[in-house]
Amino acid sequence: MTIDLNSRIPNNVNLADNRRLQRALESWQPSFISWWKDLGPEGTHDFDVYLRTAISVEAEGWANFGYVKMPEYRWGIFVAPPVEGRTIPFGEHKGQPVWQDVPGEYRASLRRLIVTQGDTEPASVEQQRQLGLTCPSLYDLRNIFQVNCEEGRHLWAMVYLLQAHFGRDGREEAEAMLQRHSGDPDKPRILGAFNEETPDWLSYFMFTFFTDRDGKYQLSSLAESGFDPLARTCQFMLTEEAHHMFIGTTGVMRVVNRTCEVMNDLKTDDPEKVRAAGAIDLPTLQRYLNFHYSVSLDLFGQEISTNAANYYTAGLKGRFQESKIEDDHQLKNDIYNITLLEDGKIKEMEYNALLAVNERLRDDYVEDCQLGVNRWNRVMKKFKIDFQFELPHRGFRRVIGTFSGSHISPEGKKLTKEQWDKRVDNWLPTDSDREFVISLQKAVVEPGKIASWVAPPSRGIDGHPFDYEYVRFN
Ligand code: BYC
Question: The pTM is what?
Fold first, then answer.
């Protein structure tokens, strides 16, 4: 499983032995680089960035650091090693040997899953394209570039699967990945969250906490797939994904930390005074949290989904940590509790567990989000500040599924439109919140310096201190 770094496309899949595939990927590569130059991080092509590049998929090789110009980043194809004798872990083919090729009957479903996953990766790079221009510190600048490069690599991962296993259709899908663009009215990205703007660093930290975490759960369920190339690809992607969520968890935590410092220094909880001191008041942080959480909840699809049931039964997309769950892994006769809006009332209802696979994944996600929120709440406790963040009710501001089109308060009460309109400014970022947060966005690029609204990290990257020159501008 060693990575051939000298080849034009670094890989551990013996690309050199498959000339047709190698040629297909090599002919896609210039389109990718040109997309990166046009829609990747703006104005950064000459920067030397202290980046991590994988040189092997083993524990000691995937975190190799050095200065790199981003357009020269070694994007490539890395999959986790095969597990000998692996069998399909769930669904109607459970126990049969995993597939190395796409089964004809599941071709359309697999293609759709891979395209949906792949589409999110370049979308997030596009969404974050301008953030480098207003970075709060060099440390943060380096980290966002790392994330952007890895999202680019995740696109490579999906494009490899499409080109290796879906022939001409796959090549067309690979091209289309670079033609849809985040927020483009004519050719938008596939999923809603990836057409939202990420206009400031608070939104970015929230995005990496909430939306990248959806990525973790979706990739984990694809990592269980009976289609082994997809499973192994996603397994390696998950190692990179952890860093993205680290940025979200610690990013928001550092913002909370700074706000609490200011509140205690000024002995105030008046949001205006906190803002005047250049920090972001806690109620505004809660409103950003509400927004990003609800957008990300939509990414799990409908509560009751025949698509999801079919993917599961076919053995294509499993549950989170499928192999650790103790049941028959077929779910035909199992039930699962779902919160639904029925006849204008929010009710817990029992449903066939197969139809509830999306909802179960969303439940796992909600639990994980709560752990992060608890960590942020501990910061306020440490500062002896009487304020706690809360995840809003799962029906709050939803666009997909049972709650879409209704007005549900953060506490989970069904409201009329008038009631909602009266109170929504307390719950979601207002124009003036956004203007304020954007007004704080000014680039701080001197090593060791940091913007007023966020605390420095407790540790640097790869054992270096915070004031390390993580990015060199040429
Ligand atoms: N927006 O039966 P349902 C990441 C559509 S993030 C728009 O529930 P299904 C990352 C749906 O397509 C992880 N449309 O569908 C993070 C369907 O359309 P049709 C990305 C939506 O298929 C940060 C209809 O509604 N990976 O990696 O069970 C940075 C019926 O819905 C949405 C994946 O998502 C939506 N939110 O569930 C970088 C994994 N939700 O058939 C990267 C692959 C639903 O009526 N995707 N619809 O035309 C999937 O597993 C599934 O497609 C979904 C949807 C879970 C997304």
Answer: 0.97
